[in-house]
TrEMBL record:
Purpose: Catalyzes the reduction of hydroxylamine to form NH(3) and H(2)O.
Needed cofactors: hybrid [4Fe-2O-2S] cluster; [2Fe-2S] cluster
Protein name, entry field: Hydroxylamine reductase
Catalytic reaction annotation: A + NH4(+) + H2O = hydroxylamine + AH2 + H(+)
One cellular-component annotation, GO: cytoplasm
Cofactor binding comment, as recorded: Binds 1 hybrid [4Fe-2O-2S] cluster.
Keywords: 2Fe-2S, Cytoplasm, Iron, Iron-sulfur, Metal-binding, Oxidoreductase
SUPFAM superfamilies: Prismane protein-like
Pfam families reported for this sequence: Prismane (PF03063)
Family statement drawn from the similarity comment of this UniProt entry: Belongs to the HCP family.
EC number: 1.7.99.1
Gene Ontology MF: a single term: metal ion binding
Binding residues for hybrid [4Fe-2O-2S] cluster: 250, 274, 318, 406, 434, 459, 493, 495
Length: 552
C-alpha cells in the first residue's frame, strides 16, 4: 500500500504516506491496492479511448465510466473491495471493447495499430488475491523515480481525480462534453506513461486546472438549469419533530428523488455536509418537508449520524466507518460510495430508505430554530455586486477573504475559524466547501446591509467565486491579483487539489493553503509553486492577517 493523496496522510521523519496495513482514513492495504489497480486499468482504457478518437470512435458509455470509477478512489469514497473488483473487471472489459474498435478501424484503413503504454497492455488477473499481487505494478510510486518527478505526477493524478469527481457530478445533471472527455482521456493516458519530463508534467497540472474550470462551468450550468439559481435563504440547523432522513454528499439529483418519494409520507428530510447549499435553490423550496440542515462537516459524522434518529443517505464523499457509531444498518450508499456490509442502492428507488426512516423513532421533540443564511452563489453575488462595489468605493468594505475548502479534525484547523472571527469588521468573508462548518453558525453582522459572511456553496461553487472576482476586477479595472482579496484554502482531499490547480491555472496568486502542505509535494516543488504563484502555507493568524491586509 502506498497512498499519500489527502491531508491526513501519515507523515514521519522517515517518509510520508500511508504505507502500512491501513491508512489514517481506515482504508485497508488491500482496498488501497485494488484502487491502484483500478486506476492503472483505467489509464489503459483512456489510452485506447485516445487512439479510437483518431478514427472518430467515441464510446459515451466508456466516457462516463472512466471518471466515475476514478471517483471511487478519492479519499473517503469507497472502502468496499467487492465493488472495487467489479469496477476493475468492468474497466478491463471496456478496455478490450475499445481495443477491438481501434484495431478494427486500423485494419480497415490498412494502418498498423500503435504500441500503447503498459496499462493498456496489462493482462488482468482473474481473482482478487491475484489482483492484489498485480497491484504492485500499479502503485502510484512505482519505479525508481526522483521524488520531485513523483510529486509532480501525483499532483497531476490527484488533481485529475478531483476533476473526474466533478465530471461525474456534472454528468448526473446531464452535462457531458465530448471535448472535455477527450481531454480527460488524454491526460489520464499520459499519466499511465510514467513520464519523467518535468516541464510536461508541470504543464499537465495547469491543463488539469483549465479542464476543471470547464467542468465546474458545466456543473454550474447543470445545477442552475435543473434547480434554478441559489438565492439568499435562511436555513434551520436544529432538530424538527418527526420521522427523518438525512442526505449527505454532493448529489442534488438524489436529494430531489428522495424529496419526491417522501412527499406526503410524514418524513422530514434534512441536508448534511456539502448538501447544505441545496436549500438555497428555488426548486428545493417547493418541498416543505425539506426542513433544514442537520450536523456539520464529514469528520463529525460518527457522532452526528449516531445521534440522528433516522435513515442516512451518502450520495458521494465523505464516508467514514459507520460501525464506530453503530448506525451501519440505517445508512445507505449511492453511486460510487461504498462501505462493506452497508446497503448500496442502485437505481432511482429509495423505498428501503423510506421504510427504514418510518421504522425509526425520528425526532420526538422540536428545538428552538437556529437559522443561518446561505445561498450567495453566482447570481446572488452578481446581484449584490453593485452594492458591494459602492461600499468598496466609499471605503466601508476594505477587504474580501475567501475561506474555502474542506474541513477535518486536526486541531490546527482552528486557524480557519480564527481567520474568520479575527478578520476586521470592514471585511467580507466568503465561504465554500465543508470547511465553513467551523464557523458558519457564528454571528458576523453586516456592512451597510451586506452580510459579512457570504456562503457561496459547495467546493465546486468556487466557479461562482471566480466569476465574482472577474466581475470585481472588471469594475475596478485591475487584475484579480490586485483586488483586496485574499484566498485561504483549507485542503483535505483531491477536489480541493483540483480547485487549487484551477485557480493557479487562471493566474490567481498568493493563495494560502493549510493546515499543512500536501505531503506529496517536495520542498523543491513547494518552492517552485511559491516562486511562480506566491503559493504559501498558512502560518499564524496574526502574521497572515497582517500580510493579507498589508499592515506594517
Ligand atoms: Fe468536504 Fe468531503 Fe467538498 Fe470534499 S465533504 S471534503 S473537498 O469531499 O467535497 O468540501
Ligand atoms: Fe492515507 Fe489519505 Fe490515502 Fe487514506 S486517503 S490512505 S488517509 S493518504
Amino acid at each position: 500500500m502506498f497512498c499519500i493523496q489527502c491531508e491526513q496522510t501519515i507523515r514521519t521523519p522517515a517518509g510520508n504516506g500511508c504505507s502500512y496495513s491501513q491508512g489514517m482514513c481506515g482504508k485497508l492495504a488491500e482496498t488501497s491496492d485494488l484502487q491502484d489497480l483500478l486506476i492503472y486499468v483505467l489509464q489503459g482504457v483512456s489510452a485506447y479511448a485516445v487512439k479510437a478518437r483518431e478514427f472518430d470512435i467515441i464510446d459515451h458509455e466508456i466516457d462516463t465510466f472512466v471518471p466515475k470509477a476514478f471517483f471511487a478512489t478519492l479519499t473517503n469514497v469507497n472502502f468496499d473491495d467487492a465493488r472495487l473488483v467489479e469496477y476493475v473487471e468492468q474497466a478491463n472489459a471496456y478496455r478490450g471493447r475499445l481495443q477491438d474498435a481501434y484495431e478494427t478501424a486500423c485494419a480497415a484503413k490498412g494502418v498498423t495499430p500503435a504500441e500503447l503504454s503498459a496499462p493498456a497492455q496489462l493482462i488482468l488477473a482473474t481473482s482478487k488475491p491475484e489482483m492484489i499481487t498485480q497491484a504492485a505494478l500499479a502503485a502510484p510510486n512505482r519505479g525508481d523515480v526522483h521524488e520531485d518527478i513523483l510529486g509532480l505526477r501525483l499532483l497531476c493524478l490527484y488533481g485529475l481525480k478531483g476533476a473526474a469527481a466533478y465530471m461525474e457530478h456534472a454528468r448526473v445533471l446531464s452535462q457531458t462534453n465530448d471535448e472535455v472527455a477527450g481531454q480527460f482521456h488524454e491526460i489520464m493516458a499520459f499519466l499511465g506513461e510514467d513520464s519523467v519530463d518535468v516541464d510536461k508534467l508541470f504543464a499537465t497540472s495547469m491543463e488539469i486546472g483549465q479542464l476543471n474550470y470547464k467542468v465546474m462551468a458545466m456543473l454550474d450550468e447543470g445545477e442552475t438549469a435543473s434547480f434554478g439559481h441559489p438565492e439568499p435563504t435562511q436555513v434551520n440547523t436544529v432538530a424538527v419533530k418527526g420521522k427523518a432522513i438525512l442526505v449527505s454528499g454532493h448529489d442534488m439529483v438524489d436529494l430531489e428523488l428522495i424529496l419526491k418519494q417522501t412527499e406526503g409520507k410524514g418524513i422530514n428530510v434534512f441536508t448534511h455536509g456539502e448538501m447544505l447549499p441545496a436549500l438555497a435553490y428555488p426548486e428545493f423550496k417547493k418541498y416543505p418537508h425539506l426542513v433544514g440542515n442537520y450536523g456539520s462537516a464529514w469528520q463529525n459524522q460518527q457522532k452526528e449520524f449516531a445521534n440522528f434518529p433516522g435513515a442516512v443517505v451518502m450520495t458521494s464523499n465523505c464516508i467514514i466507518d459507520p460501525n464506530v457509531g453503530s448506525y451501519a444498518d440505517r445508512i445507505f450508499t449511492r453511486s460510487i460510495v461504498g462501505w462493506p456490509g452497508v446497503t448500496h442502492l442502485v437505481g432511482d428507488d429509495f423505498t428501503q430508505v423510506i421504510e427504514k426512516a418510518l421504522e425509526l423513532d425520528g425526532f420526538t421533540y422540536d428545538e428552538i430554530p437556529h437559522l443561518i443564511t446561505i445561498g450567495f452563489a453566482r447570481n446572488a453575488l452578481m446581484a449584490a455586486a453593485p452594492a458591494v462595489i459602492e461600499n468598496v468605493k466609499n471605503g466601508s468594505i476594505k477587504h474580501f477573504f475567501l475561506v474555502g475548502g474542506c474541513d477535518g479534525d486536526k486541531a490546527e484547523r482552528s486557524y480557519f475559524t480564527d481567520i474568520a472571527t479575527q478578520a476586521p469588521d470592514d471585511s467580507v468573508i466568503m465561504t465554500l466547501g465543508c470547511g465553513k462548518y467551523k464557523f458558519n453558525k457564528l454571528e458576523f453582522g453586516d456592512v451597510n446591509g451586506i452580510p459579512r459572511l457570504l456562503d457561496i456553496g459547495q467546493c465546486n461553487d468556487s466557479y461562482s467565486a471566480i466569476q465574482l472576482a472577474i466581475a470585481l476586477s472588471e469594475a475596478f479595472e485591475c487584475e484579480i491579483n490586485e483586488l483586496p482579496l485574499s484566498l485561504v484554502l483549507s485542503w483535505f482531499e483531491q477536489k480541493a487539489i483540483v480547485v487549487l490547480l484551477t485557480l493557479l491555472s487562471l493566474g490567481v496568486k498568493n493563495i494560502r493553503t493549510g493546515p499543512t502542505p500536501p505531503a506529496f509535494l517536495t520542498p523543491n516543488l513547494l518552492k517552485i509553486l511559491e516562486d511562480k504563484f506566491g503559493l504559501r502555507n498558512t502560518t499564524t493568524v496574526e502574521e497572515d492577517l497582517k500580510t493579507m491586509l498589508n499592515v506594517a
